[in-house]
Queue: 2 jobs
Job 1
Amino acid sequence: MNKELLMESARKMKTTAYAPYSNFPVGAALLLNDGTVINGVNVENVSLGATNCAERTAIFTAIANGYKKGDFQAIAVAGNTVDFLPPCSLCRQVLAEFCLPEMPVYLTNEKKNILELTLKELLPYAFTDLEM
Ligand code: THU
């Protein structure tokens, strides 16, 4: 699947986001090595702190469905933002737990341009090992 189709899937997902507190719906589409696409949305909570971002929802859903570290090929993230919407720092750390540093992360903006970064560009010097 190409990045445009993956991004389209992320964009569509925004409609099922649960974002009554921020009114900031986000959709994510995670491409697995076997071609499966697993989606995620942000799911907010009145406590605000219990909110889960779209990217983490997608990763956690993949793990719950039996996918493992190394099964992830790319992720696309979409919001209603003028500029490219990057994953928050918590999501970067969760992505680093399961995805290779070279994995592409696709971001989009109002004009539907796609910015392609690697996870390593988003999170250099990632904390990935307790035995340092
Ligand atoms: N959010 C995401 O789902 N992904 C991002 O990449 C950035 C932020 C969500 C969390 C919260 O529900 C809302 O956007 C505002 O921060």
Job 2
Amino acid sequence: MTRDTPRDDSDEETPTDDPAARPATDGGSDVAAGADEVALDPWGSSTVSDYRKLFDEFGIESFDELLPEVPSPHYLMRRGVIFGHRDYRPVARALREGEDAAVLSGFMPTGDPHIGHKLVFDEIIWHQERGADAYGLIADLEAHSARGLSWDEIDEHARDYLLSLLALGFDPEEGELYRQSTNREVQDLAFELGSKARFAEFEGIYGFDGETSVSHMQSVVTQMADILYPQLDEPKPTVIPVGPDQDPHMRLARDVAARMRYFKVTEAYASFEANAAERDHLAAAYAALRDGEDDSPVRCAAAADWIEAEMAADAAHDSVVDKLRAAGKEPLRPRVRFLDRNATPEAFDALIEAIPGEKRRYEEHIDAFDMDRADAEDLAREVEVDHGGFGFMAPSSIYHRFMTGLTGGKMSSSVPASHISLLDDPEDGYDKVKSATTGGRETAEKQRELGGEADDCPVYELYAYLLAGDDDEFATEVYEECVGGERLCGGCKEQAAELMREFLEDHQEKREEMEAVLDDLDIDLDTDRRGVAGDGH
Ligand code: TRP
Ligand code: SF4
């Protein structure tokens, strides 16, 4: 499995879900913690028993730590429903500073849109309201090849996803809605990106094998293209809100985006190449030695001596000492380095021209002595874009928790009682909430005495994820009344059921209003496409 992302979060504290500090929303997922291992499979059944493991095992970072950097965060962020991210900082910064940013997510039209999809719709809309270019796409190629849906079924469901997205507030004048199959630019980009993706990594990342259909693989490069599509006009920080099951796609997209770049910018101390661990040693040696009495340069050989005398022997230790010895009298000098990855000769020459201050050209890299890293990144991107490259920034992602099914267990489109479809008759929605499993005690008496288990209650989740909306006070009140034993499940469910009925009535009314808006958009929802659906391999 490839992993480009530095796991620099690994020593951060894992978040504590202190119910006193804020209502917990993880639906009691800790119950099964430790029982099963975490596997992220975009096409498997996705349950996550312990979200904390995703931080340690996959390098997903905790969203909580970033929360203060997000301008007026969405309630899903405030309540920990959005629990993790990969590299969201550049997006948060762009939102704060009113700079360009984009948001994109995609939906496989395999069934009705339900309240789980609403989380993602809301995330897209929230970013759009804060000025991001917004995109919503129908993953019809993926549904056809990997899920075996016919084109007729796909057309029908596609319409429903788009109507709900519009009804919840997506502005189609400002944003873009598309389906994968008819977006020529996405197809072309997918083809380009395919040059930088290898079957061997599909095997490693997704478990593909000799039985996997070529169309399924094509749907993967299509998703890579979806993710980078917002940057076709211009590179910009882009966030992809998804469930953690999509993280393998994000890791691959980030890798592929980097492989498409003309130049890689790194920091270096001497003419030789060093990896990150070796660079740490070099930085330490340089910092220790450069403050000598005179202004004489720090020689590589002296740095080797210092490292041998002062630093613990680890893997990088021996290799960096060898490199320093070979460099001998060469002075150690910090610099930024531009490595040639895919640059055309013209772009390589243009970069040399454009670098300010002292620079040195080598066969496959250029060293610049008077630039900092950030300026170097900007310059590399600029030259790339001017010479026919894309200059992609690594796409970011945010991850939301999966909702617990109303019947306990997993919320699944194939079990109607477990979820509430956005198309459910409002009365059915009411009934489903009324018959939901709760975190209540066996008797009212016990409940008054011990309090309910809101953390393990699908009904509480409905409040936190949807019914309380932006009203934190209300969500906290439900939580505290529940765990304090003042709230009993009968009344609590009645209240939730009524709110659900109202929500569905209102949403469906808005959907109707959006029919005309959708018809005016240039999206073909009545394809006469022919073909044979894939069998999921
Ligand atoms: N694979 C996603 C799913 O299973 C759908 C999807 C396609 C997507 N392209 C995307 C999601 C781009 C996010 C970004 O639901
Ligand atoms: Fe759940 Fe409400 Fe019962 Fe508490 S009172 S366990 S939140 S249904």
